Amino acid sequence: MSQKQFHVAVVGATGAVGQQMIETLQKRNFPIGEISLLSSSRSAGKEIEFNGKKVIVQEARPESFEGVDIALFSAGGSISKELAPEAVKRGAIVVDNTSAFRMDENVPLVVPEVNEKDLHGHNGIIANPNCSTIQMVAALEPIRQAYGLKKVVVSTYQAVSGAGAAAIEELHTQTKAILNNEEPKAEILPVKGADKHYQIAFNAIPQIDVFTDNGFTYEEMKMINETKKIMHMPELKVSATCVRLPIAVGHSESVYIEIDQDGVTSEQIKTLLSSAPGIVLQDNPSEQEYPMPADCVGKNDVFVGRVRKDLDEEKGFHMWVVSDNLLKGAAWNSVQIAESLVRLGIVK
After folding, report:
1. Which residues contact 31 (CB under 8 A, 6 or more apart)?
2. Which of 124, 128, 240, 267 could connect to 88 by a Cys-Cys bridge, CB 3.0–4.6 Å?
């Protein structure tokens, strides 16, 4: 890492992901000379400790980015659309954790283990992919490089923290109500502001985000489109079904893939994954060892297990992929991008 110190801004500093970004910057000893913690006017004035010092949260305005080198955004798409261009005008490189710019053809969509080289083509804004997409492509990239990739079918089992802190609170409140034989109140999931809301406690909701005209939800379409963009494979066949489960943190995915090569064994896939960057292989069925969301919380890696060959398709394989959606799915991937910008000399 460079010895130069950088001025870093965190937009959405009081939110769940923003707080994880701040914590991750500290844990990684990112070379920060000055930090600006920014939020809405509602949260401005709060104090957050950073590297042993109290920092007052300021309201995010265009002028907040004067002198900023890197701005990490996680305050919602509308804020990003309004303020990210203002930050770029003032010389900052923006790493945006919302969906605002992900599918913009002029904005790189980056998972460093997969397509770090795309950072060289930025025009001031770099997009952080959807949390469920990040962990999947990180697991698939080493396989794609070695054996090619033709098809991906994924079913997700996603934590409520993906819908924000209020969704976590609703899960806890509903669980207590049901255990006390009371009627649970549902106001957040599957989508805040929707016509109908459903309990998440002791339930599974097969809807994340709103439905599109093709019957897939926006979350599912994000996974489909983002995977193709990150891997530079517009022809890749991808399908997704995204489900919300009553888990606070940690997304899980059942992933089926078809590769290009014949004769590949599940042991070869496991060996490949065991040495892949950012991947931890946990795959020992005889000892009931496999990844679970409860064990991945607070960890930066993507965990893979249950790797097995399909019984009917020679080139088909199944795997189970788990990761902390607030870390690798958001804060850590954003900070990782910032580290890459420094290491590659893109930010100076």
Report:
1. 1, 2, 3, 4, 5, 6, 342
2. 124
